[in-house]
Amino acid sequence: MIKIGSTYDLEVVKQTEFGVYLDADNLGEILLPTKHTPDNLSVGDTVEVFLYLNSEDRPIATTQTPKAEVGEFAYLKVKEYTQFGAFLDWGLDKDVLVPFAEQHRPMTVGHSYIVFLYLDNQDRITATSKIDKVVQEDDQHDFYPQQKVDLIIANSTELGFKAIVDQSHWGLLYKDEVDQRLSFGQSIEGYIKYIREDGKIDLSLKSGQQIRDNYSQVILDYLRDHNGYAAVHDKSPPAQIADLFGISKGQFKKAIGGLYKQKVITIEKDGIRLV
């Protein structure tokens, strides 16, 4: 079923002086205006278009690419503030409206906000900045550790940064594990680090392998600076390991296990040694 607010490949069924008509199945024939029609498009060809309602609330197609589709979040700038609400630039000729009732706080022209796009009761594409009522924070998801995901940085807390995970759920990046500058509204790739018992999601900006590689590098740097030897091993107290490398005993054991398999180090009775 074809819906307003999404992108489709549609077939050209008619050509006119003001554009071409596309077969939109349950929505009937929809106009793609001349200014958005690719050159040499003929009846029988297919074209990728985004569907929305024009100013007369009629379905219309465009080859312009919106910054978000219905059911997605985006970080958009306010272009105009009117008696109807705030209009945001989302990449199309027609701006998207955030009604007053859907503004988390009054919006300001020139400022950008994270919004969610939805269809109102008249199938008009509308935005809301009240994202807390949309982002899910339950255990109804299929995420798994080490899964690569897309993140939108949406808030900061005492623990770190809250991010929208794959356009659906809240996740948390702990601030002591973030080694780069993050900004509100930023889109960035990340990884599922851990799924808690209550279904809440802990995130990382690095994959498990990248993290292990970083720990391995810390150990190698220490060995090179100390004549190739460190008087710690897998039976050493956690505090001693943390003092030397700034990592946990579990992280240390995984790192030296990998280095040993690569034949980069040897594990001796009283320590580890660089080969």
Automatic annotation (TrEMBL):
Xref: Pfam families: S1_2, WHD_CvfB
S1 motif domain: residues covered: 3-64, 69-130, 144-206
Lineage top rank: taxon: Bacteria
Family per record: Belongs to the CvfB family.
Annotated protein name in UniProt: S1-like domain-containing RNA-binding protein
Organism for this UniProt entry: Novipirellula rosea
